[in-house]
Amino acid sequence: MSALGLDYWLQWQVFVCALIFIIPTTISLRFIINKRRKENEPIIIIKSTDLWIPCWRNLHPIWLLCFRVSALVAMAFMVYQTVVNLGFFVFLFYTQWTFALVGIYFALGTFISARGCWLYTTNPLSQRGETDKFLRTAAEQNTSEQRLGLLENLMLIIYQISAGAVMLTDIVFWCLLLPFMTGENFKLTLLIGLMHSVNAIFLLLDSVLSNPQFTWFGITYFILWSCSYIVFQWSLHVCCLSWWPYPFLELNTPWAPLWYFGMALVHVPCYGLYALLIKAKDQIFSRLFPQAFLSGVEIAMEKKHT
């Protein structure tokens, strides 16, 4: 492998493509900095119970813990099999970045759920499975423990990044790459198919079982995640690499700015699709299971009474 020459990086489309990801990065950082300055004026109420209490009444948190452990083990096994078969070379791809990030989400979720289960079992209401009453009691008696700590904040950020990223990777793979990538260098195997599907399936199932806050502000972290991948790829190609893992990242074409701009724009509908799925979850399950499902609105109402 050899680095791309200076003439390659002095092409006009390189500067245009650089602006296409530098501008969103700057805007996203500005939004995040401004939000940090206004932390004392939160727009939504978020507590740590949102990350480990199921959104189904009478469902013990241990079931959510078991699911997260199972998802973590399954994803870790698939990453292991991928590295064994293809080597660490696979981490040049955005899919593996995202897959590993979802795995980290389930690792954090497993730890937070395990800690939450311990808190839940020490509360007398848990013996009767009264989740909604436990939310009020926990907020009243353990207010300091219910605030988001470092791990909870990190888990929430990773969740919002992963939500958009899994939609992006799976849609691009199945709808754009797979139909046009043929030949001996590319073969669709069971492992590759699973890598481009179970990440979204596991994350959606986790969203069905729990009720982490999902806001449009999270798209700023999603944008930074994708821009970090572009910076990573460009840095490798400046130093030691000449082959692009995705054909639309190639800069040696006058169409490169259109590809980069298109990929930048697609972040909005991908993130929006997950937002629609979360909204549909609340509406559909609230109608089908009014006595069993605890929607995000109902949880918020419980918190206002505390």
TrEMBL record:
The answer to keyword Transmembrane helix applying to this record is yes
What highest taxon heads this organism's lineage?
Eukaryota
Give the transmembrane region(s). Answer: 12-33, 86-108, 156-182, 188-209, 221-246, 258-277
Q: Which gene encodes it?
A: LOC102592038
For this record, the Gene Ontology CC terms, alphabetical, are:
membrane
Q: What is the protein name for this chain?
A: Transmembrane protein
Question: Keyword Membrane on this protein?
Answer: yes
* Provenance organism: Solanum tuberosum (Potato)
Q: Provide this UniProt record's keywords sorted from A to Z.
A: Membrane, Transmembrane, Transmembrane helix
